[in-house]
Amino acid sequence: MIREQAHAKINVFLQVTGKRDDGYHTLESVMVPLALHDTVELVATEAEGVRLFCEHPPTADPEDNIVVQVAKAMQARFGFCGVDIHLTKHIPIAAGLGGGSADAAATLRGLNRLFQLSLKPEELAEMGLKFGADIPFCVHERAAMAQGIGEQLTFLPEISPLPVWLGTPALTLSTADVFARVTPDDFQHRSLAKIIEAWTLGEGARLNALCTNSLTVAAEKTSPAFRTFMQRFALHGAQSFTMSGSGPTVFVIGPDALTLDRTDLADATFRFSILTKTL
Asked: Phi/psi at 117 (nearest 5 deg)?
């Protein structure tokens, strides 16, 4: 049996820079892995195929789960025997925290170990990219600047962990719907130099003040309930807070994460909240 941790991520910086002819938006982002994680356990079996076991499955049909899809793709390519995958979820689903991508990446790493395929992380990342732009980042689980559609990674220095508070509201946002609301007016070309410097120096308070996400406007257009949530969250003591990915989770990083009144925040507004840290 092989066990892998699948770590959540936040985008401490995200800007949409344009749109390609194939419909994909180009991005510039700084992504950071978190201690919050799912667990993926893999066991080789004599039976054929891939079986997924999960108490709270992200999809109703296991065949639609990205974990099963990447496992079957590896099985078809390398011809190994059957495998049972036990997925334990802790990262909220459809929250902008990369849970599905992290699970897929952990599955790739785990299968590589289980069947002794000797694939390099770069090879696993290339395989994962076919299933999701965030999977290459999740394979490496290192802070990085991401460009292109998110697959072009430049790794950042490792620093001491910073506290991170996460709050996921009791609503959902479709990634496709959010990106559909993005207009050329939302395209940005801001420099990443200051936020990368703040990260490199481990300056949590400065980093938090510099965090930004240009998808926030599109997310608020997509869901009036999310707009109301953002306004309400601003009243709860966060000096600066940012949406991660395409939402709806918001986060605070650095010292401010420790000073939030989490008692007041732990109400019906949130379906999930936690104080965690960067890796």
From this structure: -80, -15
Q: How far apart are the first and last CA of the chain?
A: 25
Provide the number of structural domains found in the chain. 2
Strands 144-148, 25-45: pairing is: antiparallel
Of the residues 61, 134, 186, 194, which is catalytic?
A: 134
Buried b (16+ CB within 10 A) or exposed e, 27-41: bbbbbbbbebbbebb
Structural domain including 146 reads 2-155
Query: Which one, of 208, 257, 267, 217, lies nearest residue 237 by Cα?
Result: 257
Q: Is 89 considered catalytic here?
A: no
pLDDT in tens, 154-192: 999 999 999 999 999 999 899 999 999 999 999 999 899
Tokens standing for residue 38: 């799912």
Q: Tens digit of pLDDT for each residue in 128-143? A: 999 999 999 999 999 9
Catalytic member of 9, 38, 103, 256: 9
3-state secondary structure of 217: helix
Distance CA 164, CA 9 (A): 11
Answer with the one of 122, 155, 188 that is the final residue of a domain.
155
Under a CB-based contact definition with an 8 Å cutoff, are residues 138 and 245 in contact? no
Active-site annotation holds for 9: yes
